[in-house]
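Quick start: read one record
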Amino acid sequence: MNTTITLFDNPVHRDQVIALWNAVFGYESAHNEPSLVIDKKLAADDGLFFVALNASQVIGTIMAGYDGHRGWIYSVAVHPEHRMQGIGSLLVSHAERALTERGCMKINLQIVAGNESVAAFYASLGYAVEQRVSMGKRIQENITS
């Protein structure tokens, strides 16, 4: 398969990414609604939203973030029919290079507790569990649904 990684292009990729995320993540929280997530990421205009393509078909995604010190990886998704072909690894490597080029010194990511297969995937790429407590607070006024 000929997979390419490229920047997300809203008019071209949006509908496919939304369909992929709904299929892969099945989010039920308003703050994770794909259209909102895409709009918020595009507003950041940081050039850290990538898609994996097979021809013109979106088969994977990754978003990254960078605050000037640490980088973050988010929304890694590979279409179920294209898993176990190295696409997830390609996406992560691509995001890592983009973050490294910006001067990033450390990359973090979070996974849902109990998702051992995803933990094993990231461990195979050199990520390790760190003893941290992840806390979050939703800012409801910024969550439109």
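The radius of gyration is 15 Å.
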